[in-house]
Amino acid sequence: MKTSIKRVALSRIRSSYATADQWLREHALVWWLLLAIVPGGAYAGAEALLNDGSLSRVLTLGVLFGVTFATVTVLLQRLRQG
Question: Which domain of life is it from (predicted)?
Fold first, then answer.
């Protein structure tokens, strides 16, 4: 009984993931923004905590990292798709 419930839940998760993935690929700007904000914010936060940098330096590094990461990721994904 528990196994079938887990399979149903896993199937729903896979379906939801596939739907979200398809939506994000159709809306490239939203996908790019997420790819820029999440890693860029994490990098900026780590920089602030570990190096005790100034706010302007932390924000600059976070934005540069996020923009670079998002752009490279989207370009490579598009090239891979053909």
Answer: Archaea
HEC sequence for the chain: CHHHHHHHHHHHHHHHHHHHHHHHHHCHHHHHHHHHHHHHHHHHHHHHHHHCCCHHHHHHHHHHHHHHHHHHHHHHHHHHHC
pLDDT per residue over 16-27, tens digit each? 888 988 898 888
Q: Report pLDDT digits (tens) over 18-72.
A: 898 889 888 889 999 999 999 999 999 999 889 877 889 999 999 999 999 999 9
Q: What is the dihedral of CA 35, 37, 43, 49, to 10 degrees?
A: -150
- pTM over 0.70? The answer is yes
